[in-house]
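Hi again,

Forgot to attach this to my earlier email, sorry! This is the prediction with adenosine monophosphate bound. I've pasted everything inline since the attachment limit keeps bouncing my files.
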Amino acid sequence: MPELIDLHTHSRVSDGTETPTEVIQAAIKSGLGTIALTDHDTTDGWAEAFEAAEGTGVQVIPGMEFSTRWEGKSIHLLAYLIDPENLDLRAETLRIREERSRRAETIVDKLANDFEISWRDVLDHAGEGATIGRPHIADVLIAKGIVEDRGQAFHEILRPGGHYYVPHYAPDPLRAIQLVVAAGGVPVLAHPATRGVGQVISKQNLAHLVDAGLFGLELKHRENQADAVAVLEDYAKYFGLVSTGSSDYHGAGKPNRLGENSTDSKVLERIIAAATGSSPFQG
Ligand code: AMP
Ligand code: FE
Ligand code: FE
Ligand code: ZN
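Structure tokens for the complex follow:
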């Protein structure tokens, strides 16, 4: 059986529901050989993940899911094996985390007009120093019996364009890729086919990202839509981009299960060979 390689997961350091230690334990249970921890806009979970993996035989790829914005839409960029001390990258991700927090507070202010919810509730719920996102607000709505799960919270209350939605600052994808490459990392567009073929990135725009160092596309992801994936498979071939597969595990926060998609070991080798910012941790 090929090794299971899951290159996209979240812990409580962002919007997952498990600590990095619990994510590694879950990875072992799920039979993963390699797992990347890719919390939103932070590398703060890496050390705990390495410690938890020590002696288990599981390989940990340190990563991050970088928030970017393009034409008013949120685009996520997976950044593998970056130098976590890189000053420009640190400054930008710190700015995003601060703006995320301010934005979440604004969302909660709006919600407070209609629901029994306060910013204190969200802060009490989110892990100390965690990258704050709408999932933390969703969890408070669940705890108060207002919705059943995060899915319902997003669908009915927190979706973009909805009454309570507020966007947050994020750099454009080109700038984010430049920052990741300058930090020795390997950038891969996360779930690039979720909005369907009508809104897939144009070949021309993709060419700019490839010129800046984009390395791959996460083509195997449960939220990708098949018609858009078909187009992007052609683009990947044309530009020589790798294709990855992953779960986007968020613990109990999403139905996504570890190892439900896997990345080819040859692709992982290429990602590791291209990186200069940090090293995989062999547990
Ligand atoms: P934000 O970071 O505040 O923009 O919120 C986006 C995050 O919410 C994503 O990273 C997902 O983890 C999560 N998310 C988005 N849609 C859903 C959903 N339908 N169910 C559960 N989590 C979701
Ligand atoms: Fe998330
Ligand atoms: Fe994402
Ligand atoms: Zn993710």
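The chain has two domains: 4-93+169-282, 103-157. The CA atoms of residues 61 and 280 lie 5 Å apart.

That should be everything now.

G.
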